[in-house]
Amino acid sequence: MFRNKTNTHVKKKNYTSFFLSFLFILTFILILFNKTDYFLINKIKGVGLDYATPITRFISSPIQIINNITIRVNSIKNLESENFKLKEEVVRLKKWQTLAIKSSRENRVFKRLLNSTSHNIDIIKTASVINQSNNLYSKLVTINAGVNFKIKNNLAVINEKGLVGKTVFSSKNNSRVLMINDPSSSIPVKTLSDGSFSILKGTNQGKFLRSAFIKDSVMPKIGDLLVTSGNAKIFPRDILVAKVIEVKEDHYFALSYVDFNNLNYVQVVKSK
């Protein structure tokens, strides 16, 4: 009886020792697996990161390139827009510069016209030359002033350099001017040196003026200045006409001070 109890007690003790040993081993195994799992997971993460990073870069590279191209294209578009605006601004500035130069030139011409105006004349109108006919048979210009400014036929026309011609036709808004270098023109003049009188006419080429009549055959000298005599009652007296450049036996040639190929502004005048 006593032996049976002792055996039973020994078995319980053995079971308890085995159970504790088993728990200890199980705990150790679990702890080992836990540590192993931690290191394994970290290893897998590291390997995945090493392989995933180049792949991600490769996949994202075209997208990044497209984004950079888009940014570049937008930048170029902005530059083109700014360049277009700058070009427009340059065009506007050039127009303003042209207008300023033109206004300055007009002011200088008007000032010279004002300074060249004699006290013996009245200014009817300062006008612009809008058309010019300069051929072998006629030397005419058209100005932008007509009957609306009381302009009629046979009025003298001058610029800052001297006598240009006379009006031969007037409409409401425009007038036609026969220049003194036209073959059909006739200008009574006198020399400033001795006051001798003569009549000048134009030539077919229109470059020189030629004497058509010389009073008392008194020939001028080369270099003499010729001004209007006022005898024809069309051209006011003492308006500069030309300079004598060549003297022949019975006639002479003179060169007008007016540049007929560069007429911009003129004044229509009459005697006081």
Span between N and C termini?
174 Å
Question: Residue share in helices?
Answer: 40-55%
Reading side by side through the largest sheet, how are the strands ordered?
Answer: 1-2-5-4-3-12
N-to-C SSE string, H for helix and E for strand: HEEEEEEEEEEEE
How many helices? 1
Number of β-strand runs: 12
Name of the CATH architecture of the domain at 117-271: Beta Barrel
Query: What is the highest CATH level, the class of the domain at 117-271?
Result: Mainly Beta
Instruction: Give the CA-based shape.
Output: rod-shaped
Strand content: 25-35%
Average pLDDT, all residues: 80
Which homologous superfamily in CATH is the superfamily of the domain at 117-271?
Rod shape-determining protein MreC, domain 1
Q: What is the makeup of the main sheet?
A: 6 strands, antiparallel, barrel
What name does CATH use for the topology of the domain at 117-271?
A: Thrombin, subunit H
Structural class: alpha+beta
Which regions contain 5 or more consecutive residues with pLDDT less than 50?
1-5
**Rg computed from alpha carbons, rounded to a whole number of angstroms:** 55 Å
Keywords:
alpha+beta; Thrombin, subunit H; 6-stranded antiparallel barrel; 1 helix; rod-shaped; disordered N terminus
Any chance you could write out the topology, listing elements then pairs?
Layout: H1 2-116, E1 121-134, E2 139-143, E3 156-159, E4 162-170, E5 175-179, E6 187-191, E7 197-202, E8 209-214, E9 225-228, E10 240-247, E11 252-256, E12 265-271
